[in-house]
Amino acid sequence: MKRYFPFFIILVILSLTFLFPSVDFKNSGSPQFNTGDIAWMLMSTALVLIMTPGLAFFYGGMVNKKNVISTMLQSIVCMVIITVLWGIFGFSLAFGESFHGIIGNPSTFFMMKGMLGNATWKAAPTIPLLLFAMYQLKFAIITPALITGAFAERIRFNSYIIFLVLFSIFIFSPLAHCTWHPDGILAKLGVLDFAGGTVVHMSAGWAALASAIYLKRRNEANHSPARITYVMIGTGLLWFGWFGFNAGSAFGANALAVTALATSTTASAAGGITWIFFDMLRGRKPSAMGTCIGAVVGLVAITPAAGYVTVPHSLAIGIISAVVSNLVVEWRTRTTIDDTLDVFPCHGVGGMVGMLLTGVFASQHVNPNNTTGNGLFFGETHLFLVQLLAMVGVSVFAFFGSLLLLKITDMISPLRVSAEEEMLGLDISQHGEKL
Question: How would you class 404 by CB atoms within 10 Å of its CB: exposed for 0-12, middle for 13-18, buried for 19 or more?
Fold first, then answer.
């Protein structure tokens, strides 16, 4: 029966495409579409998508040679599975009619109904709703892909697919709704998350820690990276795509997008150089791997703050986040936690540092849409306390929710490969392929 289950799923999806063709147009009103905004958001959507192949190279270069294909595929498969899920009901869960500010009504945009014609989203009135949905889809794709670095080299591929679907439905979608929907509980609280500090990086980081704890250590914990050149290529693609990730979250070709682009690239550069210098201060050689990791940590930390802070403060965010994440990586190596590629220290901790520093450096002069207030740096405490509360709440939800989903997945299909399969390598044991 298990052999035919995937065919049953495909049959169900095919049936839905005939039952719900989604040809309804919404032509009420006269939205002021802006062709410049549409062009920029089309480009941003493509930029964010390329981050997932970039992540595949970034992670793939760090693992053992016998696990490169499997690790990279764990990122790429998110592009196909989450896209289908998003088109059916995922977008509705995140941005549909709000249910108590926690989750969206799955029927609101079921099978992308009502998405054509003049339909728009409140926060992005100058672009079509369908474009907004496709842009947000790319965030939904990369978030579960980020987790894969924590359980690399020891997870069964079939079980991973089940987990990423459950994570997208029960962790990512509620957090996206709470944070980015106007009626979401975090949005109403005044939480500032410009492009995904809570929704993407903290959720993935805490899920990564939960995964590393649940799946326990690898039998061969020590390994040498397969291709550091892959890591460098991946870093370039991630940095390139991150301009769409952060600057695209302005939802238009405007001054705020320029600010987000500038703060993103400066924070990344500051994170990269800080990682190098911090390693040198401790007697280590400056490494390509460290440079790449530091640059990505800077991008992670600036993500929630990108549209709320100035360039000097983005430099501070990059520097602080790199030092903190570097220290947490060092701490992690002295524990029994086998977070293979240090996803929690880099994405989870980087996301939390970014959320808190948003509460320190955010300025209403940078973004008038910030109605919560200025940060601690400007003598106000309210925003910082709101950010701190959100950080704690999201951390608890993402960590324990992910542990529960891992347990459910393990009951459906064992998560861990056998010792023999791990020794052989996941490329051969899971996919019958090798470099």
Answer: middle
Closest CA to 174 of 269, 102, 281: 102
Q: Are strands 103-104 and 98-99 parallel, antiparallel or unpaired?
A: antiparallel
Show the DSSP H helices in 252-348 as ranges.
255-281, 288-302, 311-333, 343
For domain 35-416, give the fold: Ammonium transporter fold (1.10.3430)
Reported as a single tens digit per residue, the pLDDT across 80-133 is 999 999 999 999 999 999 999 999 999 999 988 888 878 899 999 999 999 999
* Residue ranges of domains in the chain: 35-416
- The ranges of the chain with pLDDT < 50 are none
Task: Centre a 10 Å sphere on the Cβ of residue 199 and count the other Cβ atoms it contains.
Answer: 31
**379 Cβ contact partners less than 8 Å away, ≥ 6 residues apart:** none
Choose among 264, 342, 248, 270: nearest CA to 299: 264
- Residue 152: is it exposed, middle or buried by C-beta count within 10 angstroms (0-12/13-18/19+)? buried
φ, ψ dihedrals at 323, nearest 5°: -65, -45
310 and 357 Cβ atoms separated by less than 8 Å: no
pTM of the predicted structure, to 2 decimals: 0.94
The helix or strand, by DSSP H or E, that contains position 104, with its residue range, turns out to be strand 103-104
pLDDT digits (tens, 9 = 90+) for 182-213: 999 999 999 999 999 999 999 999 999 999 99
